[in-house]
Design goal:
The complex is a heterodimer of chains A (159) and B (399). Chain A is an alpha/beta fold. Helices cover 42% and strands 19% of the residues of chain A. In chain A, a hairpin with a 5-residue loop joins β5 (128-132) and β6 (138-142). The relative contact order of chain A is 0.20. The relative contact order of chain B is 0.09. Classes of the chains: A alpha/beta (159), B mainly beta (399).
């Protein structure tokens, strides 16, 4: 039983609590830790939030993308200005088809510091997506995603 | 006895805070009381007699306290919310307070009414110099959501409130139609309950604070993030022709920020004695990114070219504006990864030219947005910080 199947199973019977353990805390140094963990592989980081209406509308599209490209390194980071309950994050991710995706959530009450670590000019607007290339390149945008662009970028990163 | 009970209630940790112990549910609250030391947002107002009134949100309660010495010390706070409520704790949300010439106090705050971030604006009043506050009442009815309330008193002493309202969203959906964003709603109070709610503009951005001022008695002016074209969340301005007649919508700046997302970052507005309207705002537009300032001398028909404010690589944001006569104060936040600095620039000629920015204060942890207020003579910067507490900083020595 792989992790995705296990999570889907537990969610299906309404137990979202075990999924919470899979939402990592994103604190100081979290951005570098995340990049380090995926070093050498193309990485898509999608910052979203429970308090962001357009994010919630778009999230199922990310779920479909994740299922269409199961081997892609896709990481979801909940970056609400006020951290939201882990069970609600997990529930929302599961409903969007992202129960098995690697997921992080901002820790603490000083989000400006975390925004700054990701990009000094980021004031916290959501959603935000960052495409991190093999060679350390980064391109990002604020707002919902053009999935054709994401797919094209991912294909361009093939070794 | 009543005072004793109230004090006890204030000392008790908020129930909501207790329920948030799990790291992933919420970070452990830095403190569990409802005093100013535990506040997340604080809004000041000066009374005519020079008393500083401060309202704040802390652990799902709204409190008010007065200071007779310009913020150095505060009297015991008084609760506006009898019970903890699920306060709107978004980055651009804050309780508001106004004090009229006879000392009547009105407080407005927003709560979340469901899990989908629909809000309700509530009003509470004190007619006994802040000793007691009335049971909070909704500012309006017949609306599924109201948030981002602002409130100011005009020179005739009437209270003008404006907020973002979703009644027209609901009405459109009932007819099977789409409706982008929210509506700019407003109402007036002569000291008692607010009168009927009216809509000044449809299809505004739904997640940013408003900037309020007056171009004359009964003539409010509102700056707000609007939705232009399909999705450009640039700023609009409406100057009222009379208390219930909004003037035309003018665009403050064509930044072309097409974003299907949440900036949570609204504008600031101040009106000078000459009637010049000053606006400062944040944008991530195609044409410009960062914080900008512009002014208009014809109620918004034409604005000056946007002037950049602060360093865009330092998370510059949360501008605040204030005028005293022809002097204009513009403050903003700047963050270098470790320290948040409040910076200030001053114009002595109604916004035509500006002095070099100076650092006014700094802190090493989370902080509220800067607020600028005046007692009619001196400008003050009001700033709530986690690490360094609350500060009211006089700006009379800043040139």
């Amino acid at each position: 039983m792989n992790r995705r199947t296990f999570l889907s199973g537990t969610l299906a019977v309404g137990m979202v609590r075990p999924a919470r353990a899979d939402i990592h805390g994103f604190g100081r140094g979290g951005w570098q830790a995340l990049l380090g963990a995926h070093a050498g592989r193309p990485l898509i980081v999608h910052f979203w939030g429970l308090t962001c209406g357009p994010c919630l509308t778009e999230l199922p599209d990310w779920g479909r993308f994740a299922h269409s490209r199961p081997n892609a390194d896709l990481v979801l980071v909940a970056a609400d200005p006020v951290p939201q309950p882990g069970d609600r994050l997990a529930e929302t991710l599961a409903q969007a088809g992202l129960a098995g995706a690697e997921s992080w959530s901002f820790d603490g009450r000083f989000p400006s510091r975390l925004y700054f670590e990701v990009d000094p000019s980021w004031a916290g607007e959501l959603p935000r997506t960052v495409l991190c290339g093999r060679g350390g390149t980064q391109e990002s945008w604020i707002g919902t995603a053009d999935f054709a662009r994401v797919t094209t970028w991912l294909d361009s990163q093939k070794a | 006895m009543k005072h004793w009970l109230l004090s006890l209630a204030l000392l008790m940790p908020a129930m909501a805070a207790r329920a948030q112990g799990h790291m992933h549910a919420h970070p452990a609250p830095a403190c569990e009381g409802v005093g100013l030391a535990c506040a997340s947002a604080a809004t000041p107002a000066f009374a005519a007699d020079g008393t500083l009134w401060l309202t704040w949100a802390a652990n799902d309660r709204v409190l008010v306290a007065r200071s007779a010495d310009k913020g150095a010390t505060f009297a015991a706070p008084v609760a506006v919310t009898p019970e903890p409520e699920r306060l709107d704790n978004g980055p651009d949300s804050r309780p508001r307070i106004v004090v009229d010439a006879s000392g009547r106090i009105t407080v407005a705050y927003a709560v979340f009414r469901d899990k989908n971030w629909n809000g309700e604006v509530k009003i509470s009043r004190s007619t006994d110099a802040g000793a007691h506050f009335s049971a909070p009442e909704p500012i309006t009815g017949g609306s599924p959501s109201q948030r981002f309330q602002s409130m100011e008193i005009d020179s005739d002493g009437r209270v003008f409130a404006a907020w973002l309202d979703k009644r027209n969203v609901a009405a459109a959906r009932a007819k099977g139609e789409d409706y982008a964003g929210a509506a700019l709603a407003f109402a007036w109070s002569d000291g008692g309950r607010f009168g009927p709610t009216r809509i000044a503009a449809d299809n505004t951005c739904e997640c940013c604070r408003l900037g309020l001022g007056f171009v004359g008695p009964g003539r409010p002016v509102v700056a707000f993030r609007n939705i232009f074209a399909k999705s450009e969340r640039d700023h609009g301005l409406i100057a009222f022709q009379d208390p219930n007649t909004p003037g035309p919508l003018h665009r403050v700046s064509e930044d072309h920020w097409a974003i299907s997302g949440c900036p949570h970052h609204g504008p600031s507005l101040a009106v000078g004695e000459s009637g010049t309207i000053h606006v400062s705002w944040f944008t991530g537009g195609d044409l410009r990114k960062g914080v900008f300032y512009a002014r208009t001398t014809d109620a918004g028909a034409a604005f000056t070219a946007p002037m950049r404010v602060g360093d865009p690589t330092k998370q510059t944001g949360r501008p605040a504006l204030l005028t005293i006569g022809r002097t204009v104060y513009l403050a903003w936040k700047s963050f270098d990864g470790e320290r948040t600095e409040l910076r200030l620039s001053v114009s002595r000629d109604d916004g035509a030219t500006w002095g070099a920015p100076v650092a006014i204060a700094a802190t090493g942890d989370e902080s509220d947005h800067p607020q600028l207020i005046s007692d009619g003579r001196t400008a003050f910067l009001s700033w709530l910080t986690v690490q360094d507490g609350y500060r009211l900083i006089p700006l009379d020595r800043v040139s």
